[in-house]
Structure prediction request, 293 residues.
Amino acid sequence: MITRTFRHLVLDNPMTLEGARFWRRFLRTGGDTGRAVNATIFVLLGVFYLWLMYAIVHFHEDLNAAILGLELMLLTLLVPASLYASVSGEREKLTWDALILTRLTPAQIVVGKLLSRLALIVGLQLLIAPLLLLSHMCAKFNSEYSGAALVLSQVALFTWSLLLAGFSLWVSTKTKRSVTTLALITSALLAFLVLLPALILLFASGSGNSNPEVLTWDGTPLQQLSACLLHLHPVGVLYGDLMRTSNHQAGDLWYAERLFTTTPWVYGMGALLCLFGSWRTLRGMEIARRSRG
Prediction:
């Protein structure tokens, strides 16, 4: 049963060739930007990468915090940017009806759209991994992150990227124009990453609560919800939960009970729910289109 499902969704899925066609076109013609522009960007990124390695080895500085921040920023920008037009773009170009009338199932479409983005996520993480390892080994003093914390940070970033991918795909199935999809995804990310923490900190300071991120049994339900949301924020995970030098408060259940290790599971469950929602929406679109035909 498992082998048959894997063959149906991956091995015999024509949609998995979508990513290969994109990279083939990108390498041959440069895609929409052109080979000269792409070559210039790659050269600049290569120089920056080599400079980072030189700085780590020469100055013996612990740059893991900066590198993790850069990795988080790149994944948060690149994953939605690569998926926002995955379905709404097809509908906008009037190629969606032809796609769903083929033998492709909604599950194959969802998996096919996701697999090429998984390659992007894993490839970026593999590119960043040598920098993290080198910085951890060459630091003059103890690194702000333990080896286990670095591993957990990569697991958290991977599942966070899966959540972004699933959410972007789900929004794309709900809209008919790619610009609308991009606007909705951008608004949701700004609300969760910027506006929500700002409001929590603002109301916490107004109520006299100097430590809104501390999770305790005697807190009000609103305080407990606010603390959980701040801890589930990817910046809070990287720069609070996993750092050695974090000011972990006594009695904070998030650290005493090691709840921060559940964050990747929360991200992963969110990604699965979004992918299920995408499949369900595509299934409904397929049934409606076939019934009209």
In short: The longest helix spans residues 106-138.
